[in-house]
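User: Can you model how 6-diazenyl-5-OXO-L-norleucine sits in this protein?
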Amino acid sequence: MTLRFLSLLVVFIAPVSLPAVRASEPITRPPRQSVEVVESRSGIVVSETDEASAAACEILAQGGNAVDAAVTAAFVLAVTWPEAGNLGGGGFMMIAPPEDDVVCVDYRETAPVSVTANSFVGWTDRHHARMAGVPGTVAGLAAAHQRYGILPWKQLVEPAIRFAREGVEVDEFLAWSLNSYLTRERVRTDAQFAEFRRVYGHPDGRKWRAGDRLIQSDLAETLELIAEHGPAAFYEGAIADQIVAEMQRSEGLITREDLQEYKALVKPAVSGRFREFTIYGAPPPSSGGLTVILEMQMVEALELTSSSDRFWTTEQIHLLSEIMRRAFRERAAHLGDQPINTELRDKFSRDRAAELAATIDRQEATSSESIAGEIEISEGSYESPQTTHFSVIDANGMAVSNTYTLEQSYGSRIVVEGAGFLLNNEMGDFNWYPGYTNTQGAIGTEPNQMAPGKRMLSSQSPTIVKQGENVRLITGSPGGRTIINTVFEILVQTLEFNRPLPEAVDGWRFHHQWFPDHLRLESLDDGEARQIAAELEERGHEVRLSTGYRQGSAHSISIDLKTGIATGVADWRRGGSARSVAAVPVTESTAP
Ligand code: DON
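Assistant: Here's the modeled complex, given as structure tokens:
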């Protein structure tokens, strides 16, 4: 019986489609038409591809728990969502086991041992083997499984092997994604991308079309080695040999010793109270957990005006962007790969949030430069929108919130020869120029400067919210620094305003990150956005309503604690599939 057929058996209802607010301007990437919603008491997986959500749901149906399902989803995404799903990157997996503390598996990449704080001064090429940090994904998934998984490892990797060997049906998204990178000048012509062209190019040399099959035989073999020998195959065995050979060929920095030394770390989550909820986030080297919690505690200190029928009101956007501005300044000043200690806790405490909130003018924008404090501002940095997030809950209420990434789409674009997987370009997340912080968004502060074995600062913000002992919400997103604010806005809508999750995921988003000192609005070009932008400009904000800007892809799950029914919501902005095990019928849409 095929996986697709099996997964259909466990999904009792078709997902409900809700109308989404749509932009009228053309965008290059084909969006889905709406959020996708499923409900269930028996387990839900929401991820970027239907293959990953379905395969992970099947693992739940076979008796696996949320961590087992997450491991399967992550491996399948490495095959079916090659721009961000990965073996050669890293990320953070938040795990809430029933009746136990929430933990974070930190499988962020590390800097190769040969680097110093100045190693990348003057370097400009983001698509080069030198940009790759030591990958953490395989170690991270193995560490999560070793501690919490119940089904055999091999069984969890098997669906990904099948998709790699037998092929993935290319849909509109994948065709668009592959074609748009394969046709870039450098990818088409540069010798170092020959393996990329061989692995991802259409065998007939033409463009990909929906309905084609993408077969990845090298990746299938790599996954078989991982299924058979576990992470040792990747960090010490045959795959390590292939990575080291690739580094020699492409002038990368990762050595055999770097790979042998790599460890995924299981850490306590960072947490903070917000009204009756506890928010759990990823600890450093992610800035996500502490920054989101600081933002939420500023909301509590500030008292937002209550919501009208319209999300968002101009005043709410003003206040929330002032919160974002301040939180991102704290992030730049204090966060890097460091242990949580009292000093750091104080900098992101409830008291500090209240102090920062007290500096917000309810009418007027503050200039970012005026709050720089001890950070010296010099007179750009670009983060492309590629990472991927998924959320899982099982029948026992065990929750997983996982975000992992190659950094930019297709990472460094270096495919390890013969191994069929891409290496990340995550070294770009370090502060490259010690002491150099500019108004364009480059940050040069000390905590995130490069050092051997150190992990680069991340904005990935996989988040779990509990109410009492129970999981209430699971969320996260891709999107570079916007991740933090996408998660923040989902938390504000659901926890502060009790907005149903489908609406919260559907609704439009905005972002401020201290520098550059402008406020980006998702450009829902419907007149209303322009009106809001004009009102914000009157308050002193510089507003960017850029064409086709889409903020994140927040595949999330909320749980109604009265009924025990979980609602999974797949975002509409990129891919997205919400699948459930033994779903209960949804009679009415909760959409506006
Ligand atoms: O870890 C980080 O914060 C970035 N490397 C994430 C990049 C990202 O989210 C790009 N995509 N959506």
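A couple of observations from the model: The first helix runs from residue 3 to 10. The first strand starts at residue 16 and ends at 17.
User: Helpful, thanks.
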